[in-house]
Specification:
Layout: H1 2-34, E1 39-40, H2 48-52, E2 55-59, E3 63-64, E4 70-79, H3 93-96, E5 103-105, E6 110-113, E7 120-125, E8 131-133, E9 140-147, E10 161-166, E11 175-176, E12 183-187, E13 195-196, E14 202-210, E15 215-222, E16 236-242, E17 250-251, H4 255-265
Antiparallel strand pairs: 1-11, 2-4, 3-4, 4-7, 5-6, 6-9, 7-8, 9-10, 10-12, 12-13, 14-15, 15-16, 16-17
Length: 269
């Protein structure tokens, strides 16, 4: 009899343990989804009024666009907490601006906004009081470079905008964030006439200007294993683009040369 009770106790305990584990897994998944960075793609069934009640526009510090009449003003959507009485809980300005400086020095005659998760740029013309925006679709501008006056820079100057934009849910997880591809664009100084210069399914690592050939060299990470993710297992490529006739960049290291390099490196222990 005691043996049967022991067996029954083990079975019941095992079932209870499985239930506890399942509850913990479900709770973990829900919590993980809540902590997703970037922004969630909203279903069409959610009304515009519901969205407005949860989000507000947030503006970053502006920067002058060198040799133009434009001010650049980054902006984004900030999700706010709303209690049952539909009152919005106020937050300090520090919580809205996730950076210490509005822009940082970069290279050549360019500077870069130092922000995270901003969704657009306002172009304000100080002389005409006219304004327009950079993007007309939901996106995250992950990198944005613009000409900026720098007395210490004595090299050749270029007049274009370069940006990396996340606008596609590459891994279909319902969010656009750092896990998705970045499309790199060159645009005119007013933010118009954007031309994509990076291949699809890639992310921007760095970029350079070759002054002798007036070219941009992009160092990118491609989704080479086709898993819709970007990790150290994926290939890094360098592609070349003409500044004055931009288009999708061409690889400067051929597949044959890569194979030769791999053969050489395999001998290293």
């Amino acid at each position: 009899m005691n043996g049967k009770k022991l067996v029954l106790g083990i079975i019941i305990g095992g079932i209870f343990g499985v239930i506890v584990v399942l509850i913990m897994v479900i709770a973990y998944d829900r919590n993980k989804n809540k902590k997703q960075d970037g922004f969630q793609i909203v279903a069409d069934s959610i009304s515009n009024e519901q969205v407005k009640l949860q989000q507000i526009l947030v503006y970053g510090d502006y920067a002058n666009l060198d040799s133009t009449d434009y001010l650049l003003i980054p902006l984004g959507m900030q999700t706010v907490e709303i209690d049952e009485g539909r009152r919005v809980k106020s937050k300090s300005a520090e919580e809205y601006l996730p950076y210490d400086e509005s822009f940082k020095s970069y290279k050549y005659n360019f500077s870069s906004f130092n922000f995270t998760d901003y969704n657009n740029i306002v172009f304000y013309n100080k002389k005409t009081d006219s304004t327009h925006i950079l993007l007309y679709t939901p996106a995250i501008i992950s990198q944005f470079y613009f000409p900026c006056s720098n007395e210490n820079y004595t090299g050749k100057k270029y007049w274009f905008l370069l940006m990396a934009v996340r606008e596609i849910d590459t891994n279909t997880d319902g969010y656009i964030n750092s896990l998705d591809e970045e499309n790199v664009y060159i645009a005119d100084m007013n933010g118009k006439n954007k031309v994509q210069i990076s291949p699809n399914k890639s992310q921007l690592i760095d970029w350079f200007v070759d002054e002798e050939t007036n070219s941009v060299l992009l160092k990118i990470r491609e989704d080479s294993n086709k898993d819709n993710m970007f990790t150290v297992l994926d290939d890094i490529e360098i592609v070349k683009i003409s500044i004055y006739a931009p288009g999708i960049g061409k690889e400067i290291i051929s597949k044959k040369l890569k194979m030769d390099i791999s053969r050489i490196l395999r001998k290293i222990k």
